[in-house]
Amino acid sequence: MAATNWAEFTDQTNARMAELRKSMPEASKGFAELARAAIAPGALDSKTKELIALAIGITARCDGCLAFHAKAAKKYGATRQEVIETIAVALYMGGGPSMIYGGEALSAFDALT
Fold first, then answer.
1. pLDDT tens for each residue of 9-37
2. Which domain holds residue 79?
3. Residue 10: closest CA among 54, 71, 80
């Protein structure tokens, strides 16, 4: 993967997703409700849930997942060290490809405010 401008990438992705949401409003509304419910604090706090989502994004090799969940993890107070430990778990579960995407996830976390 080439160097990524994560802020530009999220802006582009948001624009594309806005267009898609217009095309399927009911499904989009349901997905948004699912996302809110899944990340809402419960037995696990929202930060932990976003770190889990980031780990899944790494193992699934999903650039959009890296960008959005790194940004959300930061919003909920994740530290750089917590992201690094999340990447270590993803590496354990996903092998070599997760090492590559772990580097991308850390790049996204560092770049996005």
1. 999 999 999 999 999 999 999 999 999 99
2. 7-111
3. 71
